[in-house]
Amino acid sequence: MHITIRTNSLLTIIIPTHNRHHYLERVVKYYSNFEFNIYIIDSSHDEFIMDNWPSHIDYKHLPGSVFHDKILFGCDDIDSDLIALCADDDFLFANALRKAVKQMERNVNISVSFGEFIFFDSENSSRFYSVNLPKPSSISLLKGGKTSRLKHFMDNYSQILWSLYRKDILINSFEAIKSSKFSNDNFIESIISCVAISKGELNFMAEQFGVREINPNEHWGTRHSVISSKDELDILSFKNEITKFENIEFAESALDTLLKNKSLINRVIDKLKHIFNSPSTSIGKNVEDKGDSVLIKKLLKEFDDRL
Prior knowledge:
Elements: E1 11-17, H1 21-31, E2 37-42, E3 57-61, H2 67-77, E4 82-85, E5 91-92, H3 94-106, E6 110-121, E7 124-130, H4 146-155, E8 164-166, H5 167-180, H6 188-199, E9 201-214, H7 232-242, H8 248-260, H9 262-276, E10 285-286, H10 292-306
Parallel strand pairs: 1-2, 1-4, 2-3, 6-9
Antiparallel strand pairs: 4-8, 5-9, 6-7, 6-8, 7-10
Protein backbone atom coordinates (compact mmCIF):
# COMPACT_ATOMS: atom_id res chain seq x y z
CA MET A 1 0.00 0.00 0.00
CA HIS A 2 1.29 3.46 -0.88
CA ILE A 3 0.03 6.42 1.08
CA THR A 4 1.33 9.88 0.23
CA ILE A 5 2.01 12.39 2.98
CA ARG A 6 0.13 15.57 2.04
CA THR A 7 1.37 17.82 4.83
CA ASN A 8 4.78 19.43 5.16
CA SER A 9 5.57 18.81 8.82
CA LEU A 10 8.72 20.23 10.35
CA LEU A 11 9.55 16.75 11.66
CA THR A 12 9.18 13.29 10.15
CA ILE A 13 10.04 10.03 11.92
CA ILE A 14 11.59 7.39 9.66
CA ILE A 15 11.06 3.79 10.78
CA PRO A 16 13.12 1.27 8.77
CA THR A 17 12.01 -2.36 8.99
CA HIS A 18 12.83 -5.74 7.49
CA ASN A 19 10.94 -9.02 7.98
CA ARG A 20 9.41 -7.78 11.22
CA HIS A 21 5.78 -7.20 10.30
CA HIS A 22 4.74 -8.39 13.77
CA TYR A 23 5.99 -5.04 15.09
CA LEU A 24 4.42 -2.73 12.54
CA GLU A 25 0.80 -2.78 13.67
CA ARG A 26 2.00 -2.01 17.19
CA VAL A 27 4.19 0.91 16.16
CA VAL A 28 1.52 2.31 13.83
CA LYS A 29 -0.99 2.35 16.66
CA TYR A 30 1.46 4.14 18.97
CA TYR A 31 2.24 6.87 16.45
CA SER A 32 -1.35 7.18 15.17
CA ASN A 33 -2.02 10.28 17.30
CA PHE A 34 1.34 12.00 16.84
CA GLU A 35 1.35 15.45 15.28
CA PHE A 36 4.49 14.52 13.34
CA ASN A 37 4.61 12.61 10.08
CA ILE A 38 5.68 8.96 10.18
CA TYR A 39 7.48 7.27 7.29
CA ILE A 40 7.85 3.46 7.37
CA ILE A 41 10.29 1.90 4.88
CA ASP A 42 9.92 -1.87 4.58
CA SER A 43 12.53 -3.98 2.73
CA SER A 44 10.73 -7.28 3.39
CA HIS A 45 9.85 -9.51 0.46
CA ASP A 46 6.14 -9.36 1.30
CA GLU A 47 4.23 -6.11 1.62
CA PHE A 48 2.64 -5.24 4.95
CA ILE A 49 -1.11 -4.93 4.45
CA MET A 50 -3.14 -2.82 6.85
CA ASP A 51 -6.57 -1.23 6.60
CA ASN A 52 -7.30 2.33 7.64
CA TRP A 53 -3.83 3.84 7.71
CA PRO A 54 -3.67 7.17 9.59
CA SER A 55 -3.31 10.01 7.09
CA HIS A 56 0.05 11.17 8.50
CA ILE A 57 1.68 7.72 8.25
CA ASP A 58 3.29 6.73 4.96
CA TYR A 59 4.34 3.16 4.13
CA LYS A 60 6.87 2.38 1.41
CA HIS A 61 7.56 -1.18 0.30
CA LEU A 62 11.12 -1.47 -1.09
CA PRO A 63 11.85 -5.22 -1.12
CA GLY A 64 15.52 -6.10 -0.88
CA SER A 65 16.76 -2.59 -0.05
CA VAL A 66 19.67 -2.34 2.38
CA PHE A 67 19.62 -0.13 5.46
CA HIS A 68 21.49 2.91 4.12
CA ASP A 69 19.52 2.91 0.86
CA LYS A 70 16.24 2.92 2.78
CA ILE A 71 17.29 5.94 4.81
CA LEU A 72 18.55 7.84 1.75
CA PHE A 73 15.34 7.01 -0.15
CA GLY A 74 13.30 8.41 2.72
CA CYS A 75 15.38 11.58 2.91
CA ASP A 76 14.89 12.16 -0.80
CA ASP A 77 11.12 11.69 -0.51
CA ILE A 78 10.54 13.73 2.66
CA ASP A 79 10.15 17.52 2.80
CA SER A 80 10.77 17.90 6.54
CA ASP A 81 13.84 19.80 7.72
CA LEU A 82 14.22 17.52 10.74
CA ILE A 83 14.17 13.72 10.62
CA ALA A 84 14.18 11.30 13.54
CA LEU A 85 15.21 7.66 13.16
CA CYS A 86 13.35 5.07 15.20
CA ALA A 87 13.66 1.28 15.22
CA ASP A 88 10.47 -0.63 14.47
CA ASP A 89 10.36 -2.12 17.98
CA ASP A 90 11.13 1.14 19.79
CA PHE A 91 9.07 4.18 20.78
CA LEU A 92 10.14 7.84 20.83
CA PHE A 93 8.53 10.17 23.37
CA ALA A 94 6.47 12.99 21.88
CA ASN A 95 7.44 15.53 24.54
CA ALA A 96 11.15 14.82 24.12
CA LEU A 97 10.82 15.33 20.37
CA ARG A 98 8.92 18.58 20.86
CA LYS A 99 11.65 19.90 23.16
CA ALA A 100 14.37 18.81 20.74
CA VAL A 101 12.61 20.51 17.84
CA LYS A 102 12.32 23.78 19.79
CA GLN A 103 15.99 23.65 20.74
CA MET A 104 17.02 23.01 17.13
CA GLU A 105 14.81 25.86 15.93
CA ARG A 106 16.46 28.22 18.41
CA ASN A 107 19.99 27.01 17.70
CA VAL A 108 20.67 26.37 14.02
CA ASN A 109 24.12 24.99 14.89
CA ILE A 110 22.67 21.84 16.46
CA SER A 111 23.11 18.97 14.02
CA VAL A 112 21.77 16.06 16.10
CA SER A 113 19.64 15.86 19.26
CA PHE A 114 19.53 12.74 21.40
CA GLY A 115 18.79 11.65 24.94
CA GLU A 116 18.57 8.70 27.30
CA PHE A 117 16.56 5.59 26.51
CA ILE A 118 14.82 3.31 28.96
CA PHE A 119 14.40 -0.37 28.17
CA PHE A 120 12.01 -3.28 28.35
CA ASP A 121 12.69 -6.95 27.78
CA SER A 122 10.99 -8.71 24.88
CA GLU A 123 9.97 -11.44 27.33
CA ASN A 124 8.78 -9.05 30.06
CA SER A 125 7.22 -5.89 28.67
CA SER A 126 5.64 -4.97 32.02
CA ARG A 127 8.94 -3.69 33.45
CA PHE A 128 10.72 -0.57 32.18
CA TYR A 129 14.22 0.05 33.48
CA SER A 130 17.17 2.36 33.00
CA VAL A 131 20.80 1.34 32.52
CA ASN A 132 23.83 3.34 33.58
CA LEU A 133 25.62 3.80 30.25
CA PRO A 134 28.33 6.40 29.56
CA LYS A 135 26.93 9.68 28.27
CA PRO A 136 28.05 13.27 27.65
CA SER A 137 27.99 15.20 30.90
CA SER A 138 26.68 18.51 29.55
CA ILE A 139 25.47 20.15 26.35
CA SER A 140 27.95 22.97 26.88
CA LEU A 141 30.86 20.55 26.77
CA LEU A 142 29.82 19.49 23.30
CA LYS A 143 30.43 22.98 21.93
CA GLY A 144 33.71 24.62 21.03
CA GLY A 145 36.16 23.51 18.37
CA LYS A 146 35.50 20.47 16.22
CA THR A 147 38.38 18.47 17.61
CA SER A 148 37.44 19.17 21.24
CA ARG A 149 33.80 18.27 20.52
CA LEU A 150 34.93 15.02 18.91
CA LYS A 151 37.22 14.13 21.80
CA HIS A 152 34.54 14.89 24.39
CA PHE A 153 32.02 12.73 22.56
CA MET A 154 34.41 9.79 22.15
CA ASP A 155 35.51 10.10 25.79
CA ASN A 156 31.83 9.86 26.79
CA TYR A 157 30.73 7.61 23.94
CA SER A 158 26.99 7.26 23.43
CA GLN A 159 25.10 5.47 20.68
CA ILE A 160 23.31 8.13 18.63
CA LEU A 161 21.81 6.29 15.65
CA TRP A 162 18.24 6.61 16.95
CA SER A 163 18.20 10.40 17.24
CA LEU A 164 16.75 13.58 15.73
CA TYR A 165 18.79 14.92 12.80
CA ARG A 166 18.86 17.87 10.51
CA LYS A 167 18.06 16.40 7.14
CA ASP A 168 21.37 17.36 5.52
CA ILE A 169 23.33 15.74 8.37
CA LEU A 170 21.39 12.51 7.92
CA ILE A 171 21.96 12.53 4.16
CA ASN A 172 25.69 13.24 4.49
CA SER A 173 26.07 10.54 7.14
CA PHE A 174 24.32 7.83 5.17
CA GLU A 175 26.01 8.73 1.91
CA ALA A 176 29.30 8.18 3.78
CA ILE A 177 27.99 4.89 5.19
CA LYS A 178 26.94 3.74 1.72
CA SER A 179 30.27 4.68 0.19
CA SER A 180 32.37 3.15 2.98
CA LYS A 181 30.90 -0.36 2.69
CA PHE A 182 31.81 -1.12 6.31
CA SER A 183 31.92 -4.83 7.07
CA ASN A 184 31.48 -4.08 10.79
CA ASP A 185 28.30 -2.09 11.36
CA ASN A 186 29.62 -0.83 14.68
CA PHE A 187 31.54 1.78 12.64
CA ILE A 188 28.25 3.28 11.44
CA GLU A 189 27.55 5.35 14.55
CA SER A 190 31.16 6.57 14.67
CA ILE A 191 30.94 8.00 11.15
CA ILE A 192 27.57 9.59 11.99
CA SER A 193 29.08 11.34 15.01
CA CYS A 194 32.02 12.60 12.92
CA VAL A 195 29.70 14.07 10.29
CA ALA A 196 27.49 15.67 12.95
CA ILE A 197 30.43 17.13 14.88
CA SER A 198 32.10 18.38 11.71
CA LYS A 199 29.00 20.35 10.75
CA GLY A 200 27.61 21.45 14.11
CA GLU A 201 26.88 20.67 17.73
CA LEU A 202 25.61 17.51 19.37
CA ASN A 203 22.65 18.27 21.61
CA PHE A 204 22.53 15.79 24.48
CA MET A 205 19.21 16.07 26.30
CA ALA A 206 19.51 14.86 29.89
CA GLU A 207 16.05 13.31 29.88
CA GLN A 208 14.24 10.23 28.63
CA PHE A 209 14.07 10.23 24.84
CA GLY A 210 12.18 6.99 24.31
CA VAL A 211 11.79 3.28 25.05
CA ARG A 212 13.82 0.51 23.45
CA GLU A 213 12.99 -3.18 23.32
CA ILE A 214 15.77 -5.56 24.32
CA ASN A 215 15.88 -8.57 22.01
CA PRO A 216 19.28 -10.34 21.83
CA ASN A 217 18.41 -12.15 18.62
CA GLU A 218 17.62 -9.06 16.56
CA HIS A 219 20.12 -6.36 17.55
CA TRP A 220 23.09 -5.70 15.26
CA GLY A 221 25.35 -4.89 18.22
CA THR A 222 25.22 -8.57 19.13
CA ARG A 223 25.80 -9.72 15.55
CA HIS A 224 29.00 -7.75 14.83
CA SER A 225 32.44 -7.81 16.39
CA VAL A 226 33.53 -4.96 18.62
CA ILE A 227 35.70 -2.31 16.97
CA SER A 228 39.32 -3.44 16.67
CA SER A 229 42.57 -2.35 15.05
CA LYS A 230 42.25 -5.58 13.08
CA ASP A 231 39.41 -3.95 11.10
CA GLU A 232 42.02 -2.56 8.70
CA LEU A 233 39.77 -2.06 5.67
CA ASP A 234 37.01 -0.47 7.75
CA ILE A 235 39.52 1.84 9.43
CA LEU A 236 40.88 2.91 6.04
CA SER A 237 37.34 3.51 4.75
CA PHE A 238 36.52 5.45 7.91
CA LYS A 239 39.45 7.82 7.37
CA ASN A 240 38.84 8.17 3.63
CA GLU A 241 35.18 9.09 4.14
CA ILE A 242 36.00 11.80 6.67
CA THR A 243 38.52 13.44 4.31
CA LYS A 244 35.68 13.92 1.83
CA PHE A 245 34.06 16.53 4.08
CA GLU A 246 36.88 17.57 6.44
CA ASN A 247 40.61 18.28 6.33
CA ILE A 248 43.20 15.59 6.95
CA GLU A 249 43.93 16.91 10.46
CA PHE A 250 40.33 16.33 11.55
CA ALA A 251 40.33 12.90 9.88
CA GLU A 252 43.51 11.84 11.65
CA SER A 253 42.21 13.19 14.95
CA ALA A 254 38.94 11.32 14.47
CA LEU A 255 40.76 8.08 13.71
CA ASP A 256 43.24 8.51 16.58
CA THR A 257 40.42 9.31 19.00
CA LEU A 258 38.36 6.37 17.76
CA LEU A 259 41.22 3.90 18.20
CA LYS A 260 42.34 5.41 21.50
CA ASN A 261 38.84 5.17 22.90
CA LYS A 262 37.85 1.91 21.25
CA SER A 263 38.08 0.24 24.65
CA LEU A 264 35.37 2.60 25.98
CA ILE A 265 33.27 2.16 22.84
CA ASN A 266 33.64 -1.60 23.10
CA ARG A 267 32.71 -1.49 26.80
CA VAL A 268 29.48 0.26 25.83
CA ILE A 269 28.81 -2.36 23.16
CA ASP A 270 29.77 -5.19 25.54
CA LYS A 271 27.48 -3.75 28.21
CA LEU A 272 24.63 -3.64 25.70
CA LYS A 273 25.38 -7.25 24.76
CA HIS A 274 25.22 -8.13 28.46
CA ILE A 275 21.88 -6.36 28.71
CA PHE A 276 20.56 -8.17 25.65
CA ASN A 277 21.58 -11.54 27.08
CA SER A 278 20.49 -11.05 30.71
CA PRO A 279 17.08 -11.57 32.31
CA SER A 280 15.47 -8.17 32.71
CA THR A 281 14.89 -8.80 36.42
CA SER A 282 18.65 -8.97 37.05
CA ILE A 283 19.70 -5.66 35.55
CA GLY A 284 18.83 -2.00 35.49
CA LYS A 285 16.85 0.29 37.74
CA ASN A 286 13.07 0.39 37.63
CA VAL A 287 11.61 3.48 35.95
CA GLU A 288 8.49 5.24 37.22
CA ASP A 289 5.52 5.02 34.86
CA LYS A 290 4.54 8.44 33.56
CA GLY A 291 3.59 10.21 30.36
CA ASP A 292 4.13 8.27 27.16
CA SER A 293 5.58 5.27 29.02
CA VAL A 294 2.13 4.59 30.53
CA LEU A 295 0.58 4.51 27.06
CA ILE A 296 3.38 2.30 25.76
CA LYS A 297 2.91 -0.23 28.56
CA LYS A 298 -0.81 -0.45 27.83
CA LEU A 299 -0.06 -0.91 24.15
CA LEU A 300 2.51 -3.63 24.82
CA LYS A 301 0.08 -5.49 27.06
CA GLU A 302 -2.62 -5.28 24.40
CA PHE A 303 -0.38 -6.85 21.78
CA ASP A 304 1.14 -9.38 24.20
CA ASP A 305 -2.38 -10.58 25.05
CA ARG A 306 -2.96 -11.33 21.36
CA LEU A 307 -0.09 -13.82 21.25
